[in-house]
Amino acid sequence: MPSSDARSGADLDPVTRHTRSRRDLEQGIEQDFGQNLSYGAYLDLPTLLSAQHPRATPPQHDELLFIIQHQTTELWLRLVIHELTSARALLAADDHRQALKRIARVKHIQASMTEQWSVLATLTPSEYAQFRAFLATGSGFQSWQYRAVEFMLGNKNAGMLPVFAHDEEQHAELERLLHEPSLYDEVLAWLARRGHPIPQEVLDRDVSQPYEAHEGVVAALSRIYADPQEHWAEYETAEELVDLEDNFQVWRFRHLKTVERIIGSKRGSGGSSGVPFLRRALELTFFPELYDVRSAIQDVTPEGYHGGDGRG
Ligand code: HEM
């Protein structure tokens, strides 16, 4: 029984009542797009929304999820390439502050890309099995934008190029990126210009080759990490790179675990062993010395402290 001072719904003011099912349009709201630029036209939505072509016969409900998950990832990768291209150029021009702004955005994009694996994880193995055969040999392994990002960050691997030989434009683009300095190459050159002793052979390296860790770079980074206050710009930039790598690995890990729950130990549609092949990517690194330097950092021991054995 309601208490005597309880108000009926009709007495509540309009803000607290949840009875509205309609919002009146305001006078200034544009409605005539015969001449004016519309949302859909600006974004070219007709092209975007007509680019989903499920192939399964009979049609399978879940194939649209599979297509859109890939397409949204490719859209985000397009933006990542855009931001990294700019970050590299800004570093080359000694504008590390703006470069860090670009990297900050990439980190948020990565977080979004990683979070969206949970959408695909709603696809069960039996649902996927209904349309998997229709992908034939198609696989994310053939994503040229993904390779472009790997190359730009520093995982140069000329062995990836033949996969793109069928598409002249993509092949040329990857070939170009293979021969350009990676973000890491640019950071090391920037450190050198700021007076840090990066070995000349590292600065002169053939940037199309996989990067190899160098003790001299660990030594230069050790000086920075030993005194962050003194070298804040370098320290902050280095830690931003570690965030990028960390995020990249988390994406790879979530991909692997999603793949594992959907296809188990089946081979990949692109022809690899599947999960074991993906697992090996978790051992890759973009910025090896940024991890090596961590082991070189001396633990601080308060005066008079004799405990501990240096582990953990
Ligand atoms: C049911 C969902 C998925 C399955 C079962 C799957 C499976 C696989 C497998 C087995 C590989 C290894 C190459 C091969 O043999 O095909 C691979 C690679 C790859 N996939 Fe997926 N994938 C799925 C979804 C996605 C999505 C949504 C993306 C986003 C674009 C993606 C991106 C990639 C990339 C970039 C690679 C290359 C990774 C590397 O070189 O280490 N995959 N995928």
Automatic annotation (TrEMBL):
Cofactor note: Binds 1 heme group per subunit.
A UniProt-annotated Pfam family: Trp_dioxygenase
Cofactor(s) named in the record: heme
Binding-site list for substrate: F66, I67, I68, Q69, H70, Y128, R132
Recorded catalytic activity of this chain's protein: L-tryptophan + O2 = N-formyl-L-kynurenine
Record GO terms (molecular function): heme binding; L-tryptophan 2,3-dioxygenase activity; metal ion binding
EC number: 1.13.11.11
UniProt-annotated binding residues for heme: H255
Main EC class the enzyme belongs to: oxidoreductase
SUPFAM superfamilies in UniProt: Indolic compounds 2,3-dioxygenase-like
GO BP terms: L-tryptophan catabolic process to acetyl-CoA; L-tryptophan catabolic process to kynurenine
Biased composition (Basic and acidic residues): 8-26
InterPro entries with a match to the protein in the record: Trp/Indoleamine_2_3_dOase-like, Trp_2_3_dOase
Listed pathway(s): Amino-acid degradation; L-tryptophan degradation via kynurenine pathway; L-kynurenine from L-tryptophan: step 1/2
Region (Disordered): 1-27
Keywords: Dioxygenase, Heme, Iron, Metal-binding, Oxidoreductase, Tryptophan catabolism
Function: Heme-dependent dioxygenase that catalyzes the oxidative cleavage of the L-tryptophan (L-Trp) pyrrole ring and converts L-tryptophan to N-formyl-L-kynurenine. Catalyzes the oxidative cleavage of the indole moiety.
Recorded family membership: Belongs to the tryptophan 2,3-dioxygenase family.
Known partners and oligomeric status: Homotetramer.
Protein name: Tryptophan 2,3-dioxygenase
Originating organism: Serinicoccus hydrothermalis
